[in-house]
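2.7 Reproducibility. Because tokenized structures are sensitive to small changes in the input, we list the exact sequence used for Lipocalin-like domain-containing protein, including any N-terminal residues retained from the expression construct. No trimming or masking was applied before prediction.
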Amino acid sequence: MSLRPPRRSTRQRDRRRRRGPWLLSLVAALVVGGGAAVAWVLSPDTDERAVEGASVPDSFAGTWSGRMVQQEAGGDHVIDWDTRIKLEGGAERGSSEWYTLNCRGSLTLAEHEGDRMSFDYVETYDPEDHCVDEAELTLWPGGSEGEIEARWDALSDSGTPMVSTGTLR
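Resulting structure tokens (single pass, no recycling of outputs):
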């Protein structure tokens, strides 16, 4: 007579152990897939945004250059600087180079209302720290064919409002 219980088969226990990771993987895949489906359904439709005019119209597309006159909010002249703006028709982004100051940045269309467009400017290159990190650019048709008017609004590092205006061709 033995004091030990008889040996049990491990065949069923091993099957249960193998099923655990597989079942856990299936549940994880369902959760991730469900989350992705919800995010897709709730995301804004890019086609709707294009219909609402959230892209650069052909009349503003191209490369535009000109001289900007910068003033403080009180009207004191600060500096004149030259810029080049590149906008692609149908796109929501563009680029800007302030070549007199050796600065570059990206433009993202923020608003398009009537014949005016506003872009958010974010600096991408400024090795000599001459330029602002962020600004708002507003464009509208100029007084003559082949011209657009530009206005840059920004805050200096010290918090002083700066306005630059000019005609681009």
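The helical segments are 11-42, 46-51.
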